[in-house]
Design a protein that fits this description.
The chain is 41% helix and 22% strand. The chain contains eight helices and seven strands, in the order αααββββαβαβαβαα. The strands form two sheets. The chain has a five-stranded mixed sheet with strand order 5-2-3-6-7. A two-stranded antiparallel ribbon has the order 1-4. It is elongated.
Length: 197
């Protein structure tokens, strides 16, 4: 679990190391505020992928017709999330996640897909791992090996410092199972994602 008291102590030290006075009016409550914020924005660090899968493992089987598994495809796109780069602890923002999978006898509630993406992002992360973590959890919950996760985001460690390319976006993809081997399935995914309107 996140140690809020340790966070407060270190934030006070960081403020002093930056040359400011942690006891001045505007900063006096900053360590407490940061500790509360970190508890919220890094909530995913408290759980393994398996534990997250257990939190969101409600699936539906009874009322669904899987008579044509070759044509079934579930896609949830444009899930808004944010995360923090583990290299600079800088914000990764304007992030959009798309999750697709081929059902294998059961489907997960659509809101659970967004919740999984959100919880995975609430960790110190690299964007590449976000996709693999989401894919792993979706596979655990749905028993489907056929999963694709696409992530696009802006990294403030690249836009606000260093190279300072404010329009740069990172795009990553994680493809598992038939999404790796079947061009027709890849094409269906592309059509669904890039379809206008």
């Amino acid at each position: 679990m996140i140690d809020k008291e340790a966070v407060k102590e270190h934030v006070r030290g960081l403020l002093a190391a930056l040359g400011d006075d942690p006891e001045r009016e505007g900063l006096r409550e900053t360590p407490e505020r940061v500790a509360r914020m970190y508890e919220e924005v890094f909530a995913g660090m408290n759980y393994t992928n398996r534990e997250i899968a257990g939190m969101f493992d409600k699936t539906f089987e009874d009322d669904l017709d899987f008579s044509n598994p070759e044509s079934d495809l579930v896609i949830v796109k444009d899930i808004d999330v944010f995360s923090f780069c583990e290299h600079h602890m800088a914000l990764i923002y304007d992030m959009k996640v798309t999750v697709a999978y081929v059902p294998n006898g059961k489907v997960i509630g659509l809101s659970k897909i967004a919740r999984i993406a959100d919880m995975v992002c609430r960790r110190l992360q690299v964007q590449e791992r976000i996709g693999t973590d989401i894919a792993e959890i979706i596979s655990m919950v749905t028993d489907s090996e056929d999963v694709a996760v696409l992530v696009e985001g802006c990294h403030s460690c690249m836009t606000a410092r260093g190279v300072k390319k404010t329009d740069a976006k990172a795009c990553t993809s994680t493809l598992r199972g038939r999404f790796l081997t079947e061009p027709a399935l890849q094409e269906r995914l592309n059509l669904a994602i890039f379809k206008e309107g």
